[in-house]
Amino acid sequence: MKRILEEKDNMYIDLLVLHQIEISPMYGYEIKKNIIDQLGEVIDVNHNLLYPSLRRFEEKGAIIKKVSEQEGRPNRNVYYITDKGTELLCEMVRDFNTKNAKNDIEFLARVALFDRISHEDRIRILNVRKQHLNKLLSREPSNVKKSEYTNQVLQFSTKRLRDEIAWIDSLLLKV
């Protein structure tokens, strides 16, 4: 089952979709609404991401779809997680590498699901992200003349990187 969704670069949507179905069987709109309710508008969940994700999981046996008939309304497809899906969810949360560390949403999605993985995996993920952020901070500034606004952007970006590193350090003390 190793990396059954490896063809996909961004796994965050798959992680969040599968997690919602693990919480409770639900139909597509509920999945989308719950993700947005839990994580805010930071995560873009649109039909072009949601339904292909559901199809991939169904094809791999991670979820099953049952039709729920509704009187006077269109039928709904309700999705249920399988044992394979539960195993896959944990595997996907743990599967975090230097490529994922460059993507804010990939990192945040995994932190949101830290309760699904071991203490050691949490520490590893936090340290991989922290290493990436420190690498960004250590880049030598170019000698090219910058405008006032470019300097403002650079200062803001540096502050954001330092703030996230401080946040990761606080998480490392808690996990």
TrEMBL record:
**What's the domain of life for this entry?**
Bacteria
Family annotation (Pfam families):
PadR
InterPro entries referenced in this protein's UniProt entry, alphabetically: Metal_resp_DNA-bind_regulator, Tscrpt_reg_PadR_N, WH-like_DNA-bd_sf, WH_DNA-bd_sf
- Annotated membrane-spanning segments are none
Transcription regulator PadR N-terminal domain location: 17-89
Instruction: Please give the SUPFAM superfamilies that the UniProt record associates with this protein.
Output: Winged helix' DNA-binding domain
Q: What is this protein called?
A: PadR family transcriptional regulator
Species whose genome carries this gene: Shimazuella alba
- Name the lineage: Bacteria, Bacillati, Bacillota, Bacilli, Bacillales
